[in-house]
């Protein structure tokens, strides 16, 4: 590709200013639940303060630690992909607060249905980060045992996990359990039929499920204004359940709002839609180049709202963390980076035929045929002299 052709495609968004303005949803800016401003100031909120009222300085440091370690892990994974150790990586950079806040709101017996980007939630659920890397390295056929941590497998088929979550939640209700289910999905996924069906089913069956939409403003190269004429959280109203927009870069607000929504589900009050308003700071995946479709200024504006920095400012200003804490965490981050790097490099390659196993409990003629085709394909590379 020539430099000219790249440049010609670059201003797609700014050139469309007029079009974007015409598509802006009507009415004033929607309300955003925020407990911690981008400047790190704690602000009161009559409705949601109660859900974090008893949070201790230690727990606040814990949230900070979770976000820092998740970001460090994510950076290591991106580097590992660049060095050819992973096939692909989907970075969560910028979305740490949305994931850690909501992930820490879940109870051990709750069940989580993630997309492919929920590394921070996986961390909160206790899934070993090397399992996530094994999946993106293509060596562990899907990842982990979902029932060990009540954390379902990563789902790439956009929006489909909301249906799985709804069905699971209906089962939870039938069992008479008081646990809840949370389904993660993106702004792009909100346009999928599966998500609409999930909203309908969960509403009419009063299923104990929280729909946690991370609106990171982009679905690969599609901006959110191409997904909806109204703010995403307002869609819930049409289905008959509440929707709330929360500052997705405010870990305290995400924790409080998700706790509230999960408690509603436990009490039998049905589904809730939480729209965590955030930003994907990196590329969609390591295969994507966002400079082709979005302006640098947009990213810079979101940098000022960084989820980690705002909690750090708050911790320092309120004397809840000292220099020793930050230094220790820095060392812990480096150790985590080293640990996952070494673990990835030590992962053995799977047997090439293992992928055909466990597709069906009793085997299948079509899988047998595919296995035979693959064997023939592999044999086609054999040296003539081999085996003599
Ligand atoms: C059913 C389906 N359609 C299309 C795709 C290709 N695809 C992968 S990610 C993606 C965009 C998803 O955007 P969003 O829901 O906003 O989540 P994000 O990646 O921003 O976290 C698309 C269209 C897919 N994986 N599955
Ligand atoms: Mg998105």
TrEMBL record:
Matching CDD domains: TPP_E1_PDC_ADC_BCADC
Keyword Hydrolase: no
Region: Disordered, residue numbers: 1-30
A Pfam cross-reference name: E1_dh
Listed transmembrane segments: none
Compositional bias of kind Basic residues: 9-22
Keyword terms, alphabetized: Oxidoreductase, Pyruvate, Thiamine pyrophosphate
The keyword tRNA processing is assigned to this record: no
Protein name: Pyruvate dehydrogenase (Acetyl-transferring) E1 component subunit alpha
Native organism: Streptomyces phaeochromogenes
């Amino acid at each position: 590709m020539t430099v000219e052709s790249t440049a010609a495609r670059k201003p797609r968004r700014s050139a469309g200013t007029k079009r974007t303005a015409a598509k802006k949803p009507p009415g004033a800016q929607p309300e955003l639940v925020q407990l911690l401003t981008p400047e790190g100031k704690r602000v009161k909120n009559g409705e949601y303060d109660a859900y974090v009222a008893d949070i201790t300085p230690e727990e606040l440091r814990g949230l900070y630690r979770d976000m820092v370690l998740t970001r460090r892990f994510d950076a290591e994974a991106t580097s590992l992909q660049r060095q050819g150790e992973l096939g692909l990586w989907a970075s969560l950079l910028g979305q740490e607060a949305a994931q850690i806040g909501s992930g820490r709101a879940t109870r051990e017996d709750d069940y989580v249905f993630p997309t492919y980007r929920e590394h921070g939630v996986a961390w909160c659920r206790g899934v070993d980060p090397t399992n996530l890397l094994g999946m993106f390295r293509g060596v562990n056929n899907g990842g982990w045992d979902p029932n060990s941590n009540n954390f379902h497998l990563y789902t790439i088929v956009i929006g489909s996990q909301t249906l799985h979550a709804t069905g699971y939640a209906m089962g939870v209700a039938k069992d008479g359990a008081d646990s809840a289910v949370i389904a993660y999905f993106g702004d792009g996924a909100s346009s999928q039929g599966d998500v609409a069906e999930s909203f309908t089913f969960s509403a009419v069956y009063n299923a104990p499920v929280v729909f946690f939409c991370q609106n990171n403003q982009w679905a690969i190269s599609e901006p959110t204004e191409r997904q909806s004429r109204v703010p995403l959280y307002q869609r819930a109203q049409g289905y008959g359940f509440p929707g709330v927009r929360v500052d997705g870069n405010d870990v305290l607000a995400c924790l409080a709002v998700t706790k509230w929504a999960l408690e509603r589900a436990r009490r039998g009050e049905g589904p809730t839609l939480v729209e965590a308003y955030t930003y994907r700071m990196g590329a969609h995946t390591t295969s994507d180049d966002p400079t082709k479709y979005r302006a640098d200024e947009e990213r810079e504006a979101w940098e000022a709202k960084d989820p980690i920095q705002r909690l750090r400012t708050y911790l320092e200003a309120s004397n809840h963390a000292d220099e020793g804490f930050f230094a220790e965490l820095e060392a812990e981050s480096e150790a985590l980076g080293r640990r996952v790097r070494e673990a990835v490099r030590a992962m053995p390659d799977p047997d090439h035929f293992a992928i055909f196993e466990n597709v069906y409990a009793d085997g299948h003629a079509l899988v047998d045929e595919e296995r035979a085709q693959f064997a023939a394909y592999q044999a086609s590379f054999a040296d003539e002299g081999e085996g003599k």
